[in-house]
Amino acid sequence: MTASSFPEVTAPDRPTLATLHAYARAVGVLARAHAVPHPRWWHVSLRLRPRGLATAVMAVPGGGACEVVMDLADHVVVVETHAGEALRIPMDSGLTGTAMGDRLIDALAGLGFEAGYARDKFEDGDDRPYDRAAAARYLRMFLSAYGAFERFRASLSGDVGPIQVWPHGFDLSFEWFGTRTVVDPETGDELPAQINLGLYPAGDPYFYSNPWPFDPALAEADLPNGAVWHLEGWQGSKLDYETARTAADPAAVVIGYAAAVHAVSAPDLA
Questions:
Q1: What's the DSSP call for residue 55?
Q2: If DSSP states are collapsed to H, E and C, what string results for 169-182?
Q3: Which end of the chain is more exposed for a tag (fewer CB within 10 A), N or C?
Q4: Which pTM does this prediction carry?
Q5: How far is residue 7's CA from residue 14's CA, in Å, rounded to a whole number?
Q6: Are the CB atoms for 94 and 79 separated by under 8 Å?
Q7: Number of helices and strands in the chain (H, E)
Q8: Are strands 206-212 and 171-183 parallel, antiparallel or unpaired?
Q9: Which helix (H) or strand (E) holds 258?
């Protein structure tokens, strides 16, 4: 992976990212309602593909299957079924998040789908600007991060989750699960200790980690390439995207960061 594969993104690109995020929330609501539920909520995430993002496959009520694809090469949202395309919506048409969600829900209704959709997760009335070149840069950003994380992920033993894009925050991440279990104070559920490693693309983008439960002593551990521990609002660590992007070997910087976080966090979680 070369330095150029990690693209530069700047402030003028951010409105397009907000549009992608709004449309991802609308797409994700469909999978939330119709994909086979997963106990770790992986059914609501989007799968990264070379041309964009896609939901989990959903069973069509009358037979067959469908998925919804955010194609960032052709810049369209497509409802694809076993029989072909059921709907194709240009993302540069300025649709609000509400309008995008409504059109997708109507398309699924035409295929026989029915549900009480979580509309509060996507409804908004803002016009959505879209620059095709900016969208392509964000896709390259995700793909570059995916490539680095996948190389590190393959080196891990134990229970490791898939690399996913989450509609709520529009971040790309995966989880490593320890063998230790912890009672979640909010839900009372017993959950595996874990480390979440990902990329947050909004604003000034950064790579992050969220060891859980977080041991405050971790903040004393050194991290490479200027990565820092983050203790306000959320607990974990950050590595600026620009630090990795401008390095001679960006993937190596990302992998080195992930490996350092795992090395200091995993012993307390395993």
A1: P
A2: CCEEEEEEEEEEEE
A3: C
A4: 0.95
A5: 14
A6: no
A7: 5, 13
A8: unpaired
A9: helix 250-269
